[in-house]
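hey so u asked for the seq, here:
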Amino acid sequence: MSSALVGDRPCPAPAPPSPARPRRTRLLALPEARWAALATAAFLLACPLELSGAPGWLWGPLYALCYVAGGWEPTVAGLGALRERSLDVDLLMVVAALGAAAIGQFLDGGLLIVIFAVSGALEALATRRTTDSVRGLLDLAPAMAVRIGGAGGEAREERVGVDALRVGDTVLVRPGERLPADGVVLDGRSEVDQATITGEPLPVPRSAGDEVFAGTLNGTGVLRVRVGRDPSDSVIARIVAMVEEASGTKAPTQLFIEKVEQRYSVGVVVATLALFAVPLALGADFTATLLRAMTFMIVASPCAVVLATMPPLLSAIANAGRHGVLVKSAVVMERLGEVTKAALDKTGTLTEGAPRLTDIRALPGTDLTEDEVLALAASAEHAGEHPLARAVVAAARERGLPLAPARDFAAEPGRGVRAVVAGRAVEVGSPDRLVGAAAVELPEDDSRTVSVVLVDGLPVATLHLTDLPRPGAAEAVAALRHLTGTEPTLLTGDSARAAAPTARETGITDVRAGLLPQDKVAAVREWEERGERVLIVGDGVNDAPALAAAHTGVAMGGTGSDLTLETADAVVVRDELAAVPAVVALSRRARRVVVQNLVIASVCISALVIWDLAGHLPLPLGVAGHEGSTILVGLNGLRLLRRSAWRPQDGTPRTPR
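ran it, structure tokens below
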């Protein structure tokens, strides 16, 4: 059996846990489903008794139980709506059933109650499953964690509940275990399956200094992780909270439908009364007239129309949340699909937001190798706080170079650092300040940041650093170009020379450089005056005004400032730039499903109403058609919960058929 060393003691590697079972509400766990089951059972017992000619005292109470079980909750909800001067369509269904019963059509009324109750139970189940799909992420985080503590060099393991972890605690994660909290790896190497957060199909290597997330699955190595966030504030917890908050909002289409619904429902009631009173005044048969009026009220009710909008949008919000994109409201999900122009910030959005060492160039007269130069420079920079210093140290660690202790460290802003390393005086900093611009020959078209390394007063090498584009940035830009049909724009406060390499590597031809925050806002307003609906993607404080001014703003969550994250309409939690075109495409898919639902609902209502007015529509058939269209619309919206609905965009133009 394989084992992993923890301190000086071997600990057996536990077998990998079985995949977390998705949270899934059972049908009968819902009160709506239990009432519907009781109504159905009572109806199935009463129906054959009535049809076989059994006495009324035998089947009558069963029908009464069916009516009460299936109609109680809609009646209570409808009366509550009436008290608020609102007409609930559910109440119309109950009135129609009672009207049928009043003229002796107990079977027809009972059938209406049963189908309506079953439809309501399925709608409640669909809504709960949407919630389950997001809240199920919380089940991925383990309930217990192994916290490492103790003094005097003795590491003591303590098994505690995840809720007991605090920022700064160190936890031990063995092979095959799920990480209990967001944090940074202190020690160890492993591969971590982050598919639940980032959607990455393959495990990613993680070692000292790398960020890890609660609920992700550790591979074959042992990791010591410093807790960086309270478990209640983990990425998974934030996804759940924001998606649930978004689910409480309503899109403009839904608000319009609800506004029209009230007037439409009143119109249905007035038309139903007219269909009953006018023929009756002209001498028509009471029973036939009432049945036709009740059938009309049922088939004309806008239940399917009301359900056309929110299930698709809420399903899309839940799906995006599962893939690490927090869409803050149904309004935003609808607006994302409307964008016609995309503009992106450079540093921290298109690029990684942190400089990286790309090249070491030895200067004439030195006998030091690249690794020796880098080891000396990193040792001198080790105590520095500047981003360039961190980049040099990170490059040395990537090469596995040992860092020697540094003495007499000193840092001078604008100049660089100096220290004594292994008995040699080492300086790293600006060529202009340390040796003069003429002493170091740099290509004129090189936009990278350059530091010079001096050893014992002699320049030995130059370090070339740059902020590299994010992986997949070019593909994301191409996908946005394909989705919007316009050329994406690079908006940056950097100089044109600094922006050019990023634009070239990501395929952007429209570059606006040297912009202040107000200049970015002016650019957004310029495009919107031309009729564009602008999508802004950014991360810094200087992007917040443009995010607020744009039709839709998306923030990169990993590097984004608090102000930017609050201002943005959506947040990409894990800085996967490819998620931006993916969520735009998902929004457009949701909008198409909304249109499909409205067409289905309108066609079904129109066909059934015309049938009832122009011919004779049996009440049971009208009930089945009305409730069937309602269920069909609800299930159609839930298609967007499937993982296949989230489709990464590669920007490849589709060949017309």
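The chain has 22 helices and 24 strands. Residues 1-22, 652-657 have pLDDT under 50 and may be disordered.
lmk if thats what u needed
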